[in-house]
Amino acid sequence: MKKIKIVAVPFLFILFLASCASVNVLADYDSQTDFKVYKSYAFYKTGIDRAQISDLDKKRILRAIETEMDSIGFVKSEKPDLLISIFTNERVEVDVYSPAWGYGWGWGWGWGWGWPGYYNPYWGPGYYGNNVSTRTEGSLYIDLIDAAKKELVWQGRGVGTLNNTKNIQKKEKRIRDFVSKIMQQFPPEATAEN
Q1: What whole-number distance in Å separates Cα of residue 163 and Cα of residue 84?
Q2: Burial track 10-38 (b if 16+ CB lie within 10 A, e otherwise)
Q3: Burial state string for 131-164 with b = 16 or more CB within 10 A and e = fewer than 16
Q4: Which H or E run contains 113?
Q5: Does pTM surpass 0.70?
Q6: 49 to 27, 44, 86: CA distances (angstroms)
Q7: In the predicted model, is pLDDT for residue 64 greater than 90?
């Protein structure tokens, strides 16, 4: 029995860590758009101001987008070809795990036999319960809008677990990872072959 606990607990912990680290990405775009004509970008302030996150997280996201756009040859411009906007939402996921071996605390009535021939009701503690954990699942949408036509031409979405951490470096890394995985889908011509 002890071997099962030692083997099972680390396995569950590894599964939990693996599920928290992933970002699911989906991209959609206008198939009639020639993305090769776009060379410059700017951030669409009106859209970004509506995002329901802190200004510090907005800055982190925008810096990460700048890094990704620069890495694929785009330049930031006062007269851009593309406007970039972001949108976020989040939901809290509650996970309840019932251990197979039955641990937990509770109080209640119990019945049992004492000395032979004597009936013995007793009141006392017992251990059984569930483990409950919460995690925040967030979605980050990155919209690319044709600046001349004012039409959405590409949208990337990343969904993953957000780690509420006090460690700013970890938080910034998580945001960079989110943005990087989303922006790997742009431009569509580069990803269509995959």
Answers
A1: 25
A2: eeeeeeeeeeeeebebebebeeebebeeb
A3: eeeebeebbbbbbbbbbeeeebbbbbbbbbbbee
A4: strand 104-113
A5: no
A6: 23, 9, 9
A7: yes
pLDDT digits (tens, 9 = 90+) for 107-126: 445 444 444 555 555 555 54
What is the 8-class DSSP label of residue 163? P
Task: Supply 137's token pair.
Answer: 């699942």
Q: Report residue 74 CA to chain centroid gap.
A: 27
**Residue whose token pair is 């677990």:** 161
Q: Please give the C-alpha separations between residue 119 and each of 40, 111, 126, in angstroms, as whole numbers.
A: 86, 8, 20
**Contact partners, residue 79, CB within 8 Å, separation at least 6:** 40, 147
Neighbours of 39 (CB within 10 A): 12
